[in-house]
UniProtKB/TrEMBL annotation:
SUPFAM superfamilies: Class I glutamine amidotransferase-like (SSF52317)
Domain Lacto-N-biose phosphorylase C-terminal: 664-715
InterPro entries (alphabetical): Class_I_gatase-like, Glyco_hydro_b, Ig-like_fold, Lact_bio_phlase-like_N, Lacto-N-biose_phosphorylase, LBP_C, LBP_M
Sequence ranges assigned to domain Lacto-N-biose phosphorylase-like N-terminal TIM barrel in this UniProt record: 5-437
Start and end residues of each Lacto-N-biose phosphorylase central domain: 440-659
Species of the source: Neobacillus kokaensis
Protein name from the UniProt record: 1,3-beta-galactosyl-N-acetylhexosamine phosphorylase
């Protein structure tokens, strides 16, 4: 008998019969609208929960146009400009999109803007520059020839960036531009509450209010061609305003500078080691957002409806892993699933009744067009996410966009029918059941638990050349039989390493928040970690771990890692240790190595370093004993089945638990075993699109040969004596 439920279907006007058909085939028990679609009354009367998208801070132009002084704001930085003589004129809006952004001349530029000599880092005195509001120029006098200068300036955001993206992608033509307004504005604050109350009365068929999201969009700025110029999915740049700065000064006792936001043009991306001021500003915004969002959620609950938050768009300040999130009182969170890491990012969120993943592809014309096969993307998306679901499932899955587009692809419709059935089967079997975990692994970086399952991301799950060699760590761990936690350098400084952690991973490029930057000059951090490793802990460094040139080391844990990086400073010192070991536990399943972008000029410090892979005159994979502990160095780890196996072996080796590696294990790297001893079940999984044969080991070391069909998941009853 076919199961139903736990699936949300997007729909649209004049699509009733097809919606009913897909509801039955996909077993959907909820229907949603999307940006650009609406549900007609007939669809709302179907036997399903109705999700209605609700835009708190945009989509109300009739109000926004009357209060343009309460538009949301951003601090932006001009291009670098070189002074040729003592006078320099800067076109500070050059490269920005005038349809999205307008300079703020309502508030005094001399008070709220900054001109900086980027050659010296000094702020230019306000008496030495003036603004021409007619031409959007700043004119600097007494400039120093051949120095570079920038202008940090406030703008009003007059077009919501998500609606702008959808507008351009879907060619919405003359559709009005949504104007975003700020909850800190007195009129906006009052309007948000009063409009929601009226909206709830006007939408009696809505069961779930899908807030998309609350107040502040992740930082997304477009260039003069209408293309993305700057995107940071974690950025707080669009939460700044004159009102916010004044409130911050009143609460904290000091005033923010424009530079605290523009950050030399880096805008405090998650890759930057956060300053104390920026962390305090983030905390300030999070507290405010939680207080204001709770008011709206309470209104929804008073109407008898559920409140759901979309983990995207205007999600800044909600921080589902932050200390204020619980106060909001949400019923649910829904987010976009790009793979295993993003699935876990959603599924592991605490303090909500249920979580929901919006799977790919989105039903938009950039994917659903004649000649393309959306099944390929859907299959890849499902297989990567399924690994993570088997560790901790979201409570629901769904899709978004124009259902009429997807309906034109019958193979896609049939494939999603299989996916939804499989998801329900997994969920009904394992929800609330603890899976077998052989190790406890801690990811160590500057952000810690606040960025749980969110490291090395720029624009959510999009691919970037500089990050895929690190994102692979998260993707591999998201579906692995290990317990994963995220800790910060400050956590270690204040509380030490948690007692139950077997292995710490530090991964990232030098100077980034993920590697650690200047944190590695702190002797208390170094002594705490050296002592922990020496007394039996495991440590894995990937890329440029602990990197900070200081006192004769590039890697500050070089003595523990057994390797360091040649910067040219020690070329006069001979390096004799270049011979790889014949075989090693870590590489036992590896036929080839893929370190992604890799790392240049890594060398072994002594004969104690176990070189596992050495090529082009440098070390890419090595292990090293340090007292009773072990360390492993990996030059990079893009996600793949082979690299997932390499990482798992490295973890068990670093933890001195090699003998436990074959518990609930599949010999074939394309297969995995997910065991649930408390219910006597195990899932044998083929993560590939080809048939695979593998030896499968149970928790007692017994093995048998199994052949799995492409993408197959097979449930077996098991017993475990451990």
């Amino acid at each position: 008998m076919k199961k139903n439920g736990r699936v949300t279907l997007p729909s649209e006007e004049n699509f009733l019969a097809e919606t009913k058909e897909l509801m039955e085939r996909w077993g959907a028990d909820a229907i949603r609208d999307s940006d650009g679609t609406k549900l007609d009354n007939e669809i709302k009367q179907l036997d399903a929960k109705i999700y209605t998208t609700y835009f708190v801070a945009r989509g109300h132009n009739e109000f926004a146009e009357q209060h343009m002084e309460e538009c949301q704001q951003l601090y932006l930085m001009s291009l670098f400009n070189t002074a040729l003589d003592s006078t320099l004129e800067i076109d500070f809006m050059k490269g920005y999109f005038a349809e999205q952004l307008q300079p703020d001349y309502l508030h005094d530029p001399k008070k709220y803007w900054e001109v900086i000599d980027r050659t010296t880092g000094e702020v230019v005195n306000v008496s030495d520059w003036d603004v021409n509001a007619r031409t959007n120029r700043v004119v600097i006098t007494n400039a120093i020839p051949w120095h570079e200068y920038t202008v940090s300036f406030l703008v009003f955001a007059i077009w919501d960036p998500t609606q702008m993206y959808n507008h351009i992608t879907n060619n919405w033509g003359d559709k009005p531009h949504d104007i975003p307004f700020d909850v800190r504005g007195p009129h906006s604050n009052q309007y948000m509450a009063s409009y929601l109350k009226q909206w709830l009365q006007d939408n009696p068929d809505t069961d779930v209010v899908r807030f998309t999201t609350f107040f502040y969009h992740f930082t997304l700025v477009f260039n003069n061609l209408g293309k993305e110029k700057f995107v940071d999915w974690f950025g707080y740049g669009a939460s700044i305003s004159v009102a916010a700065m004044d409130a911050f000064e009143k609460e904290k006792g000091y005033r923010l500078r424009p530079e605290d936001i523009v950050d030399q043009g880096y805008y405090n991306t998650a890759f930057r080691v956060p300053t104390k001021t920026y962390l305090e500003y983030m905390d300030f915004v999070q507290k405010f957002v939680a207080e204001e969002a709770k008011k709206l959620v309470d209104i929804v609950h008073e109407s008898g409806k559920e409140a759901m938050m979309f983990l995207g768009d205007n999600w800044i300040g909600t921080e589902p892993y932050g200390k204020y999130f619980e106060q909001i009182g949400l019923d649910a969170v829904v987010g976009s699933v790009g793979g295993g890491a993003t699935l876990r990012m959603i599924a592991d969120i605490p303090h909500v009744s249920y979580t929901e993943g919006r799977f790919l592809p989105y039903f938009f014309p950039d994917t659903f067009y004649e000649g393309n096969n959306p099944v390929i993307e859907a299959n890849e998306n499902w297989l990567t996410a399924r690994r993570a679901i088997l560790r901790n499932p979201v409570d629901r899955i769904g899709y978004g966009g124009y259902l009429s587009l997807a309906y034109k692809f019958p193979d896609f419709v049939s494939y999603i029918e299989q996916v939804t059935d499989e998801f329900r089967d997994i969920y009904d079997t394992i929800k609330g059941v603890k899976p077998y975990c052989g190790l406890k692994v801690a990811i160590l970086n500057a952000w810690g638990g606040l960025r749980t399952w969110q490291t090395h991301m720029v624009a959510h799950a999009l691919w970037y050349k500089q990050i895929y060699s690190y994102l692979g760590v998260l993707e591999s761990l998201s579906g692995a039989s290990v317990d994963v936690t995220f800790i910060s350098f400050d956590d270690v400084l204040h509380n030490g390493v948690p007692e139950d952690v077997d292995v710490i991973i530090n991964a990232g490029d030098v100077g980034t928040a993920f590697s650690g930057g200047e944190y590695w000059k702190n002797p208390r951090l170094l002594t705490a970690l050296r002592a922990w490793i020496y007394n039996g802990g495991g440590f894995i460094g990937i890329g440029e771990p602990t990197a900070c040139q200081h006192e004769g080391h590039y890697f500050q844990l070089a003595s523990a890692l057994g390797i360091d990086k040649e910067l040219g400073y020690s070329l006069s010192t001979d390096k004799y240790f270049t011979t790889p070991v014949v075989e090693h536990f870590i590489s036992a399943d590896s036929t080839t190595f893929d370190f992604g972008e890799g790392m240049k000029n890594i060398y072994a410090l002594s004969e104690e370093t176990e070189i596992i892979e050495y090529s082009n005159g440098e070390v890419h994979l090595a292990s090293h004993p340090f007292g009773s502990g072990r360390t492993v160095y990996i030059a990079g780890l893009p996600y793949s089945e082979e690299n997932t196996r390499l990482l798992m072996r490295a973890l068990y080796y670093a933890a001195h638990k090699e003998e436990e590696f074959h518990k609930w294990h599949a010999s074939n790297i394309y297969c995995e075993v997910h065991a649930y001893p408390s219910i006597g079940k195990a899932a044998l999984v083929n993560n590939s699109m080809r048939e695979q044969t593998t030896l499968v080991y149970d928790g007692n070391g017994n093995s048998k040969e199994v052949t799995l069909a492409p993408s197959e998941i097979r449930w077996e009853d098991v017993s475990y004596e451990g």
